[in-house]
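FORM 12-B: Structure-to-Sequence Request
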């Protein structure tokens, strides 16, 4: 099983040349991973504030440009509430995923909306697939909510959590003249990491044989 994370840096459907080049990187440099976690997927029109937060056209654009013979890629995405997850104004960035249906099995469940809570049942199954991790928690205030999806590979359950922590823009430089360095992003980043870890542990508590990957 091959899993990769690729921050595509504010990628919208209207950035055709960038989509082509990113698809080339996925195909050549990443060698067509089975599951791909994609932070900073934007909605279809980028910084335009109109049109909501739908990103299906962006993800479809990447898939159309992939050069992965014998593959059949599908996308997983939960659109955020416009303007609530930070990032470039109007872009509505989020973490999405692609997976190769010829290599891993995915069984969709429910139709998760931006603030729907993902729950792990007593058997380690997600109540919605894909879903978002603690989307109403203060840890993710004005930041990206992680996406989680459950797959099957060679009969084993694989859980992938796609994360994108709050930005470090504005933090001090460790080698700058001003010391000690001021890292304003650190408390929230620590808070987010703790909550993601708690969710991962909730899967393992209910299914100790589960394979959990956190990427992004």
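FORM 12-B RESPONSE
SEQUENCE OUT:
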């Amino acid at each position: 099983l091959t899993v990769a994370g690729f921050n595509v840096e504010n990628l919208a459907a209207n950035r055709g040349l960038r989509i082509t080049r990113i698809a080339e990187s996925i195909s050549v440099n990443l060698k067509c991973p089975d599951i791909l976690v994609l932070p900073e997927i934007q909605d279809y029109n980028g910084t335009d504030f109109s049109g909501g937060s739908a990103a299906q056209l962006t993800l479809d654009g990447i898939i159309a440009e992939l050069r992965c013979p014998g593959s059949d890629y599908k996308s997983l995405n939960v659109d955020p509430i416009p303007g609530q997850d930070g990032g470039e104004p109007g872009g509505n960035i989020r973490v999405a995923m692609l997976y190769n249906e010829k290599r891993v099995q995915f069984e969709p469940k429910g139709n998760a909306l931006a603030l729907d809570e993902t729950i792990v049942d007593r058997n380690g199954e997600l109540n919605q697939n894909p879903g978002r991790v603690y989307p109403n928690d203060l840890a993710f205030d004005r930041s990206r909510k992680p996406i989680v999806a459950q797959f099957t590979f060679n009969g084993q359950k694989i859980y992938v959590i796609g994360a994108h922590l709050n930005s470090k823009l504005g933090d001090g430089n460790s080698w700058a003249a001003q010391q000690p360095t001021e890292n304003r992003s650190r408390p929230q980043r620590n808070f987010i990491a703790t909550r993601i870890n708690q969710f991962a542990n909730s899967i393992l508590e209910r299914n100790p044989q589960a394979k959990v990957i956190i990427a992004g």
